[in-house]
Amino acid sequence: MPRIYTKTGDDGTTGLLFGGRVGKDDLVTEAYGTTDEAVAALGVARALTDDDAIADDVLALQRELFVVGADLATNPEERGRLEPGISLVTDDMVDALEERIDAFVAERPLPRVFIVPGSSPASAAIDLARAIVRRAERAVVALEHADRAPNPTVRVYLNRLSDLLFVLARRQAGEGEPFSR
Fold first, then answer.
1. Given its phi and psi angles, is residue 26 left (phi above 0), alpha (psi -120 to 50 degrees) or beta?
2. Distances (CA, A) of 51 to 105, 123, 137, 172
């Protein structure tokens, strides 16, 4: 029976897509690890929602975050092997997020106040995922500042994704969310 453990990471390193290793505390590991955390948080949101349309949207976003993770976790010397939309984040992916945001906001305009998350378990989970995506975006900016971010579209995608998650959380919460004073 195959084992889940390989022991290769026992030295504090982790493998990159298409070969190579970096420290588990490396900036790139932080960036793709945070996207993995966002995938898990979205899984909680999907499990909590009773709205099939939101569950479908969240599942699609989880799958797209695997593309983000692959893009970030790739050995820089092997980036030519990435496939658009499969392992490489594209402008079309960003455009699709913008279209979804615009459609949701057209259906239900956003409140013009700061929202206090927690109206429902599912909306709170989406808001938590949004905050994690924001952290992933900050990690990508740190990679850029270190001249190590190979694809600037990843940052734009994460920025737009956090906007979409805000809109989805409001949609999930419905009317009457508390706001800050």
1. beta
2. 18, 11, 28, 8
